[in-house]
Amino acid sequence: MSIEISGVTKRFGDFVALEDVNVSLPTGQLTALLGPSGGGKSTLLRIIAGLETPDTGTVAIEGVDATRLPPRKRNVGFVFQHYAVFKHMTVAKNVAFGLEIRKRPKVEVAERVDELLRLVHLSQFAHRLPSQLSGGQRQRMALARALAVEPTVLLLDEPFGALDAKVRKELREWLRHLHDEVPVTTVFVTHDQEEAMEVADEIVVINEGRVEQVGSPDELYDLPANDFVMSFLGEVTTLGGTQVRPHDVDVATAPRAAGAIEGTIARMLRIGFEVRLTVLTVAGEEVSVVLTRTHARGLGLEEGATVWLTPAPGATVVPAMRPLAV
Ligand SMILES: Nc1ncnc2c1ncn2[C@@H]1O[C@H](COP(=O)(O)OP(=O)(O)OP(=O)(O)O)[C@@H](O)[C@H]1O
């Protein structure tokens, strides 16, 4: 295990930002810390970096107790949302900075900078100033700079947070490829579940200072530990007092299945290849259902029609507002 966080608690005055956090982050893996704003993700990342000290608990990096080590002795690379660049230095100089202050030989620095700029697809911009780059290019430069000194651990705090949706999506794919090429143990803070699902090998869901669940994107989506994780990782609806994903609700036009819940289609929206229904049940629940256009057409669905709903076989069903025993 590369990073072992054991029993970490952090308070700011009376406020408990992290409470008894225990997580193991394996070497070479890309882990996302995912959760709502204020949940404690950045605090945990800053504790790993050594920028904050936990009140209790320990942090070990590659078997070494790093709890009291200053940041510069931890060999971590760090990239923030708004990355501080040296504005008067070229892209190449920015990337070279960490190596130059470590007094590495000039030839070695030049070779390493070339290699890194190639890796982040910025070779042709080596002699530009950071102000002449786009936001996405600047964050790629920031990553090259963080990687230059060959960190044991790379820590990224919402590195693409300030960029527009399209650039964010491109950078996500790019980060995944970069990680496959240079498999440095990477911890990535995000509040965007799609970003975490797309990029991470493993996701740590953090809410109100506690770890709700740790698992692969598939595990969290298919086997959420509780209703919080389920609703944070995808759309949910309530059916008969339980939570289920809208595409996991089976619709029938006759009461065939035992326990099927009767309702009326109050609204029917066609969006691309999907049809989205709002069904008002006889018990007064509003259930969202998503099905394909072909399926909806096959059933002959229309607004005002009576339907019977059941969770699809194999659907993830979680009791609303109660943790699921796993
Ligand atoms: N230095 C500090 N002093 C006081 N409170 C702090 C400090 N740093 C963080 N907090 C509080 O701790 C809580 C967790 O903050 P943190 O930045 O870790 O959350 P986060 O999950 O990263 O949220 P976001 O996605 O908004 O960055 C917040 O309520 C925040 O206000």
TrEMBL record:
Residue span(s) of domain ABC transporter: 3-233
Parts of the chain that traverse the membrane: none
GO MF term list: ABC-type quaternary ammonium compound transporting activity; ABC-type sulfate transporter activity; ATP binding; ATP hydrolysis activity
InterPro entries, A to Z: AAA+_ATPase (IPR003593), ABC_SmlMolc_Importer (IPR050093), ABC_transporter-like_ATP-bd (IPR003439), ABC_transporter-like_CS (IPR017871), Mo/tungstate-bd_C_term_dom (IPR008995), P-loop_NTPase (IPR027417), Sulph_transpt1 (IPR005666), TOBE-like (IPR024765)
Keywords: ATP-binding, Cell membrane, Membrane, Nucleotide-binding, Sulfate transport, Translocase, Transport
Listed Gene3D superfamilies: P-loop containing nucleotide triphosphate hydrolases
EC number: 7.6.2.9
CDD domains: ABC_CysA_sulfate_importer
PROSITE patterns assigned: ABC_TRANSPORTER_1, ABC_TRANSPORTER_2
Cellular component annotations (GO), alphabetically ordered: ATP-binding cassette (ABC) transporter complex
Protein name per its UniProtKB record: ABC-type quaternary amine transporter
Origin species: Nocardioides gansuensis
